[in-house]
Design a protein that fits this description.
about 100 residues, Homeodomain-like_sf, mainly alpha, 2 domains, Transposase, about 0% strand, RD_transcriptional_regulator
Length: about 100
């Protein structure tokens, strides 16, 4: 049986779904069904929206902005380590050549 293609949602679509969910008196499960969204995804989006609204806190969950910064810093760190390792290997190679 072929797998279902994973749906993707834009930031705007997520924000609109969260707004509808927070304004509604219906449970998240019902709103998800009404909007034809995965219930768990909507729950995660609502939870993250509430974290973002509360703002950064010491030892608390990360806001979306903090998560994006963390991803950027990890990517940058990984690239710098690769460059460093490359330069170490190149230096060792050229040191052998000049001997």
């Amino acid at each position: 049986m072929p797998r279902k293609k994973r749906r993707t949602f834009t930031k705007h679509q997520k924000q609109e779904a969260v707004k509808i969910c927070l304004r509604s008196t219906k449970p998240i499960a019902q709103v998800a069904r009404d909007l034809d969204l995965p219930e768990n995804s909507l729950r995660v989006w609502v939870k993250q929206a509430k974290i973002d609204e509360a703002g950064p806190r010491e030892n608390g969950p990360l806001t979306t902005e903090e998560q994006e910064e963390l991803r950027r810093l990890r990517r940058e760190n990984r690239e710098l380590k690769m460059e460093r390792d490359f330069l170490k290997k190149a230096a060792a190679f050229f040191a052998k050549e000049s001997s």
